What we know:
Blueprint: H1 3-55, H2 63-95
Amino acid sequence: MTAQKKQEIKFWANIGLSTGMFIFLVTLSFNVGEIKAQVTNDIKEIRKDINYHASDNVVHMPLAEKIQIFVPRVELEKQLKNMKDQLDRIEDKIDN
């Protein structure tokens, strides 16, 4: 093989290698872009979920609403206990 033939082979090998590397880098950059877009979408969805969760009054009820819901229950329990005591007294009077 002559020196000119060797140089020609090296030239075409370099062009092939350069073309291959270019295709690889373009593909890699495209894949990185897709992954970045997916991560961005995931972050947006997570932020939506967090905002929904933070504004959910069932999970994070304000104190004023808790008082409105739970204080009447305590009062109702007191009234029920008083009614039970009165019924017990009535039963005691009937038994005597």
